[in-house]
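Contributing new records

If you add data, match the layout below exactly. Sequence lines come first and carry their own label; structure lines follow with theirs. Keep one chain per record. Anything else will be rejected by the validation script.
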Amino acid sequence: MASNNNEHFNRILTALKNGSILIKEKRNGENYSRLFYLNENEDFISYYQPENVFAQAHRYYIKDIDEVHIGFYSLTFDGILRHKNAHLAGENLAFTILHNNYRNELHLMADDRRTRNVWVSGLKHLIDTQAQKRQRNLIRDTNWILSHVRFEDKDKSNTLNKAECKKFLAYSLNVELSEDSFEKNFQKVNKNGDGNLTPNEFIDFFHILTRRKDLYEIMQKYVKNGDDQSIETICMTTNELLHFLQTVQNQKLLNYPSKQSKDNFTVQSIMTRKQVQELINEYEPNIELQKKSLLSLDGFRNLLSSDDFCIMQPWCSRRTYQDMTRPLSDYFINASHNTYLFDNHGNDKNNPEVYNQALRAGCRVIEIDCYDGHDGQPVVKHEYSSVKAYPFESVIHFIEPNLFKTSPYPVILSIENHCSIKQQKEIARILKEILGNRLITEPPLSKSSWMLPSPENLKHKVLIRSIKSSVPIKDSKLLKKNEKFDNPIVNNGISDLFIYLENVPFRDYNYTKDHYMCLQLPSLSEKEFKQTSHSDPLGLIKQTRKCLLRIHSDNSNNPNPIDPWNFGIQIVAVNYQNNDSSMELCHGKFLDNGKCGYILKPNYLMHSDKAKFNPLDYLIKSSNKISKNILEYPQRLIITIISGQFLYRSNRNKNDISNPYVVVSTHGIVCDKQVQKTKFIQNNGLNPLWNETFEFEISFPQMCLICFDVYDYDIYSHDDHLAYFCLPLTTIQTGYRHIYLRTKDRDSTYSSLFVHVVIENT
């Protein structure tokens, strides 16, 4: 069966390499036909330019392609249809390629349905294959390695001389070797000594450079006579590996009853040699060593760099494991602000695809600003910028397929309504027609109820957040002086859409306990939060027991989400387009619980009356002994930053090589805020070694996030932020772990840190 499947895709990929005439559609309605093709090494698609066009054809690298959609999926095709530049019958010929982390789109039309399907099938196969690659695959990917030979081989000799190899090291691997080290390794692989490396010699050269001496030293500790074994021959037996996994790693294994489902698994302890042999069979590349039940250094690297053995407990990130039957107010909720903007405020760049990007990232609250359109139909735009307006109906059509792809739990559409009554009716019609029975239009509970429904009760449902009022806003006595709110929803046909989350002004606890119901959602600014959290901290926490509270920034900068979370505020609305520390923390927070967008609060925030928890009581270490009513168990976190692998430059156009250092920080209750950093390693982004150990005393582990940030030291200017990873302390696996880093704009990378983790109860 597998053989037949491979033959099928080989035929498809051959067809793509031969090329097809495809029509490229542009947003402005222009189009042109080109002969598109997949290059011979299957790492990008491109097209042949006409002879009279001197611009270089664009390359769309497979590693940068996120998804392929068939039909008139994109708003570009939607606009073409609306302007009658295409016919609905053409939907069977259309497909869209989303790339560059969903920032860009390529819209294509084939001549016939079969050609379209061949391209879509082939590209999806290549994307799936690429998605399974990790750093360990990259190191053994001959095509990837040889692509650098072709790129650096300027004289087309099919060899690389010393100068070309040094350029490869500097520009591709981000490392500068000492002259002695370079010569030693170069001469080791240059068999005839002519100063030029053949492709096979270059592969050997690359493998020597990427050999993990840090892992070799670990293996020496846990194998018999380890000091006598060389880096080339060292191996672990099944008994040695079993001992290592049990005593050093405290490792658990995921058992999948079906290979078809990655969500369905059980967590098992490692108890038997049979389990260890299965790991050797999976990760040891040498078949002969597999038969002898031995794990080489390459196999050891493959094992420790696999997803199940990385720093985050895989059962925390891959499925929902927390109690989802509590009221909505008992959860922190992944929320966005100004969702439709791609860049920071002041820029005129936007793309409705960012709604889907946020949903795919687990966001459960997205904001849609609605204004009157010129043709009687509401549009989505940003009031204070020149971003393009998109039809509201097109946006809802566009996001509907992605609402529950990542998470089955409820989505909150925050409708910032600036429309006339007539176009408000259109908003209601559109939502009802497109969302159907997924749209909540009736409360399952009576309005007198003091408790919100649970995420479990609202699975696959859409809730609307907006203002609901029977009087004009300017006459409402609820509003404070100079407080701005959107146009009220007053028409009976629309008001029933806004059942649960009515947008109301923020008030102090004494007012809200008598006047607000659980179905109302107060929103407060950063300034209001800071004032209230200091003047009435317990009252602020009490408000979050009944109602959802939302905090938003006073400007285009993101609020620091840690402080609101410490007071139990569920919805911290962040600008996803900002590349800042707040987004890093949000990404880390919501990796947990299967990335479903809902994180259960600690008991002391859910039951504040009993716990009497006040974050202001814990501003410094030992300032106040933790109350017995607060169920927290302090821990000591000991982290050794051992090494880094394949660290990227912040700017590929820069000539200098990175001088990386690592900042480790803890974030949570104020007394747990700590920062420590390593020294910088000069001119080595390929395999820097630190071996520096840090200790962190954590009083409130349930609220603590750990951030790993890699910077490039620069003596002349500010240090560039290269990459990061953030996760909750409660999800960390102890032992030797890899951390796969993300760039500052949250793109995934092959870059990693290698660390050792110990967690002790104190």
